[in-house]
Write a structure and sequence with these properties.
Blueprint: H1 2-17, H2 20-43
């Protein structure tokens, strides 16, 4: 909650300082980064596909 409020303040200040093209570039980099992460998770098999950890292991 607190970090979100700080992020909003930072984002609004940076949005006022940057040009539209720079903001679009940052958004595009964010989208490409998420797409790459999803592709990695899709094609790289997990270490143990049948593990389920609930809470802390004892």
């Amino acid at each position: 909650m607190t970090s979100g409020a700080i992020g909003v303040q930072f984002g609004s200040q940076m949005g006022a300082r940057l040009r539209n093209e720079e903001l679009r570039l940052l958004l595009a980099l964010l989208v490409v980064g998420v797409a790459i992460r999803l592709a990695i998770d899709l094609f790289v098999p997990p270490d143990d596909p049948f593990s389920l950890i609930v809470g802390e292991p004892q």
